[in-house]
Sequence to fold (85 residues):
Amino acid sequence: MEKEKIIKTMNGTIVSDKMDKTVVVLVEYKVMHPLYKKYVKKSRKFKAHDENNQCKIGDFVKIELCNPISKYKKWAVKEIIRDVK
Fold:
């Protein structure tokens, strides 16, 4: 039996595209507070590889985990889900 490779993906909004072939993606998620049992919004920024420089600020994209490209860049843009008009 072969093990299926689990590909980790996330959806987020691009907040910066100033670097060459790199975008910064803001991923928001909800976490339940352990004491108050209320859902709290949390967010995190990831640097992702954009090979063709096709992403713009405000695009909603899907990123997936890949081999490390640099010290901080371990994600790659898989597809643009919703682009800015």
